[in-house]
Amino acid sequence: MSIRMIALPSTALALAGLAALGVGSAASRPLTLAASDPVRGGTLLAGIPDNPDHLDSALSYTNEGWQILQATADGLLQFRRQAGSDGVKIVPDIATAMPTVSKDGLTYSLSVRPGVRFSPPVNRAVRASDFKFAIERLFRVDSGGVGFYTGIKGAASYAKTRKGGISGIVANDKKGTISFHLTERDGTFLDYLAIPFAFAVPAGTPDKDVSTIAAWRVGTGPYMISGYEPKHGVTITRNPNFKQWTPETPDGYLDKIEIKIGVTPQNAVNLTANGQLDWYFEPVAADRLTEVRARYPKQVHDFARGNVTYFDLNQRKKPFDKLAVRQAVNYAIDRSALVKIFGGQGTATENIIPPSFGAAYRKHDLYPYDLAKAKAMIKQAGVVGAKVAVWSHNTDPTPKAAQYMASVLTSIGFKTTVKTVDESVYWDTIATQKGDPQVAFNDWNQDFPEGQDFIDVILNGEHITNVGNNNVSNTNIPALNKRINAAKRLPLGPKRDAIWAQLDEAFMRQDAGWVPFLNRQVTRFVSTRVNGLVFNPSYFELFPSMWLSK
Amino acid sequence: MAQQVAARRRPGPWRLAGRRLARNRVAIVAAGVFLAIVLACTLGAPLWADHVAHHGPDDQNIQGTVQVDGKAVPVVGLDGTPIGPGWHGPYLLGADANGRDLFVRLLYGGRTSLIVGLGAAVVCLALALALALPAAYFGGAVDSVISRLLDLIWSFPVYLLAVALATSLAIGGFHAGPISVGAGSLWLPVSVIAVVFVPYVARPLRGELLALRRAEFVEAAVAHGAGPLRVMVGELLPNIASSALVFFTLIVANNILTEAALSYLGVGVSLLTPSWGNIIQQGFSSIVTAPALTVAPGIAILLTVVSLNVLGDGLRDALDPHASSRTSFDERAV
Amino acid sequence: MLSFVARRLAGLVAVLLAISVLVFVVFNVIPGGDPALRLAGRHPTQDNIRQIRKDWGFDRPIYVQYGDTMTRLFLKRDLISYQDQTPVLPTIERGIPATMSLAIGAALIWTVLGVGIGVLSGIRQGRLADRVLTVVSMLGISTPIFWLGAVLLYLLTFRFRDSPFFSWIPSGGYVPLTKDPVQWAAHLALPWLVLSVVSIGFYSRVVRSSLIETRSADYVRTARALGLSPRRVLLRHTLRTSLIPVVTLFGLDFGAAVGGTVILVEPIFGLQGVGQYAQESVAHLDLPPLMALTLYGAFFVVLFNALVDIAYRVLDPRIRVG
Predict the structure, then answer these.
(1) Phi and psi at residue C166, to the nearest 5°
(2) DSSP letter at B333?
(3) What is the mean pLDDT of chain A?
(4) What phi and psi, each to the nearest 5 degrees, are found at residue A348?
(5) Looking at the complex, does the CB of residue C161 fall below 8 Å from at least one CB of chain A?
(6) Which of A:340-369 have CB within 8 Å of B?
(7) Based on CB atoms within 10 Å of each CB, which residue in A312, B117, C249, C264 is the most buried?
(8) Is residue C193 within 8 Å of residue C109, measured between CB atoms?
């Protein structure tokens, strides 16, 4: 359920060189630019290369969409609107307090804060049933987020019938309470209530994408989307119905955000340098970064982000059915060469979990670069000369990474080809058993900051499916599956984190179905007047914190 | 018969054309340039790779260094910027992001582009003749059906068609009975380009053939009981050979441009095979830090295409000095 | 004449229909193009996918789906994209001003420059000017335009950005004519040039050879013999006749530009016109906008083909077009 960036047209990208994502220091440090006090007012001129996928919290599943929605809508809970590791903690948003959890860990009860109102033209106050409605609506609009909520009692049958509501969500509008009954304990349920899929949606909203339907495109945040013309622009203005209800849900400083659609990364750099653009949704065009860093050092910012970039080795396909072969590939890859291909924008890794996850990340060094050893292992396994296809999407610099992988595989004795498919089709193609890639480029960006989103979602063999399969390597080690299932039931905290860290190493040692190589980061280039940049790992850059100096 | 007798006495039309061409200095220079490019890409490529650069076109050297003025310079910098052009043997024009020698790739890429250009031209011309000959010979319903088919391909936005075909073929390859083309095969761009440009050749050829069909010598052959195939191949075909030849050079030029455009759209030649088009496509993303990766293959294309176009122009003048105007073939779609 | 026009228009509709069927079929058999998977997001349940097939009608026979798409495109006018479920037709409409500004401006440039160079080249046949101009137009014909666009953009907006000659050139985007005519032209200057380069080269070649041919035609020689001034002959007789092929070409080229070539030019400059929409949709294998855009593109190509045939009959009554 990894969140994606919007899929961009290949050529616009190639040309514009939106290549490596971000850089810099691995540590996620909170960033405070403000030397003076924040100023209220002003219009932020923002740019984005293509449409944000959706401006409907049920459907949006990209950085860009979430980043807009976090400023215009709220859920019962939220990740603290802070940068880096401070932004991992979950706090109440529209709920009056954190949920009370029943002893068996299966029931979560919350109260809805009175007086929070939807933006015009809906205007009315948020009710408990709006949250129930929002989650049920996910199933009716075929949302990509339904997977997070199938653990609620009655959700599975509701997915089929779409009638009678989800029995496991009980909302009482009079008392303003809502409770969720789960089929199994799940420590990350709190995370599920904080991501945009669970944001309040006024009951009665039609069962279709409301991105372009102003009457229903409403929310509760300090801002509202007052205009959206696909391929042209999005206008965000203050929500007149917003009254700050807790310090954790801050009011914004900006009066208005004008997002121009269709600004290429290359053009964004030029416009920002000229002061015609304040802020851009995507990282700095890779081949401009060195220049921009040198010329405008104060306007470039690096942010950590929960990402791991890797290759899958499909163990249902020869020759990768052999553990030794998969380990050999891990030895044969020079990870620092791949970092160069990604413009040096990130840090090399062989872990599954990214470093920004705190205790769940424990660095291991099982596979130092050793080409000779890899060659010997391949020979010993008797698979020299096997045919191998490396799959890649076409967004730069991924094809280059795939070509590097191909050259490595050739050098250890395989016959290698590369297949490239447009990014918008690629993820579906590698996620079907029919597509069946042997080696596939892959990356995973956190949906929420918890080890489960990596270890369980991707590598638990019980989740392997024919279609929409995240476990592209088809990793399935029953003993480890069991440990994952046990860890999932634990409440969030250090004990859980420690298990994820152990499993990370266990998978790389016993399975090696992955060749992780990079933790990418985000690099931004902003105009001189932008202040207050706060990069939250889940909601991305927070619009309400930004302000413009005069 | 009378024609053949005459041909023996006076220099033949081909020989005359040859003489006229030889007088056209610009066309001769163009032919020379094209020949030089072909030689460099075929014979020159391995020689340069083995003896000067000491790198093959696919040898990646991301972590390596190269000696420049006695100093070791990394082939690819830490920020991913490759070494630029310089007058050193290896990496004459610099390297690409994967640390491959640009000049060597240009030479080998030229092979691919020329193969695609020539191959697609052969296929395209063959298809065009296969459609135009029966259309002109039989006329009537056959002609109508073929003409409408050509209209259809003609009206279909070229790049959408090419992209649609190339994408579907690139994922799964093409399998129909005994014919099987694997994904990544050079046959894919060749056939896509050939099909797309068939109407551009078939239409004018059909027009010319229609006129020929009514010519006396053709009617005479038919009257003598010659079968359709015999008339088409024996009488009609030789008489449009000169037009076909002119078309051929122009289509090759056009195909090389199209290969580049398709690669630019990401659906051309498979990535592991260097071609001028995909070298440009991969170089675009670093046009600021490594402009040579975009500029050099573009100039190679420009040179090749100009030489072919000038040569084609010269050939037409030579073969048909009274040509009413330029043939209706044009490259506006590229 | 009327029946001819009617037949051409009927043919136009028939070709468009055939094209729409072809596009629909091709994009339905593409492996990896299954829109249900895309709509389901990255971690779909089997139920979810089945449900999407049902909701969006992907489980129905392909001809029913085709009919539905065409109905939504032409009658209900509420077609939405698979990629982000945005309405297709309003998006195309919003793109038209940029695309038309680009195409019409470029057409003006290529006609004026192409004819100008051609005439100059023709009346100076064989001299130095002719030679130089011939090389120039040959270069124009042989340029990969997407490459030219990228290189120009790099040179003028990055490499020499600080030079006073080029500092006015914006690095992309579109400004509506109604908002700021000067910026409109500034933003379109490079795209116009890039889109017209091939046609400039081509027209000048055509005009040149046509001019040379007409000059040796009997009636022109007669006019000269009758003592008309060379200038008068050139303007009144030669030029008029030798421009007939230009009319033909213009129709075909303009149709092809609006219906196709803009695909290559718009994305480079981020003009957000119809061409860029087409290029993005094709990259995303997004069938609904592709259907609309292909028909839109083919419409222009076919329409201008038909107009050329009609114009031909009007201009030159000797020609009988079937």
Answers:
(1) -110, 0
(2) T
(3) 89
(4) -70, 150
(5) yes
(6) 340-345
(7) B117
(8) yes
